[in-house]
Amino acid sequence: MVQINLPENSKISKGKYYKDKTGSKNLRRVNIYRWDPTTGGNPRIDTYEVDMDNCPSKVLDILNKIKNEIDPSLAYRRSCAHGVCGSCAMNMDGKNGLACTKPHKEIKGDINIYPLPHLKVVKDLIGDLSTLYKQYESVEPWLKTSDNKSEKENIQTKEDRAKLDGLYECIMCACCSTSCPSYWWNGDKYLGPAVLLQAYRWIIDSRDEDRKARLEKVADELKLYRCHTIMNCTNSCPKGLNPAKAIAAIKKMLATS
Ligand code: SF4
Ligand code: SF4
Ligand code: FES
Predict the structure, then answer these.
(1) How many structural domains is the chain composed of?
(2) pLDDT in tens, 122-166
(3) Which residue of 44, 125, 135, 166 could cross-link 76, Cys pair, CB 3.0 to 4.6 Å?
(4) 46 lies in the same domain as 160
(5) Judging by DSSP bridges, how do beta strands 111-114 and 89-92 pair with one another?
(6) Could you tell which of 184, 230, 241 is best to mutate to test the pocket of ligand 1, judged by most ligand atoms within 8 Å of the CB?
């Protein structure tokens, strides 16, 4: 069997242990990935004992409690706390999701929290999404019409509007793209499920006049056809969307156009 060793500076070491100081009888152990680029050390896993008697129901509540009451140095993104902004996406209990909507009761035993997989880490639980945002920009995610000076509403039928259901709800959290093996290995070229779902959202919009050019732009062996329908993306979407279906729909449009 081939043995693959991680580079020395990627090995994760055991970190600090923060023992409970409240005397609570209702404790949970939370293991969190930590890495600080300013110290130059290896990543480590810190463990926190958290008093669950005084903690609301979501994983984000645990992180907030740790940051506010135990260790203010912990870094993570969050904003809306209602599953709308997508910023608190991370890997919890081995699965990507939104910390603000994930009930900690669903996790048995120790709670393990890591950044989204296969991203460069900026600090602790914060992954670097700059490549994904550039890819998102490349699909020009806005309505393109020849009459862009009109002040009238740009209407569409109810049926055409319904075609955007399951697409417009995407919050660009990146849970899908960072769970996609094709994106892990070819993330610099393959657009990945989040961006392809967004591309399809504009391709299918009846008001948009750029469909042909949009399709041509994604019709590329590396940008699109690296999807092998493994379906990890769909299984990891915290909004219940189906990026794999959107990718299949683009392929079908290309095959029949
Ligand atoms: S279906 Fe395609 S986009 Fe989704 S995880 Fe699989 S390879 Fe990635
Ligand atoms: S499709 Fe789902 S998982 Fe992917 S970016 Fe959009 S909301 Fe997040
Ligand atoms: S904080 Fe906005 S989605 Fe979680």
Answers:
(1) 2
(2) 999 999 999 999 999 999 999 999 887 778 888 999 999 999 999
(3) 125
(4) no
(5) antiparallel
(6) 230
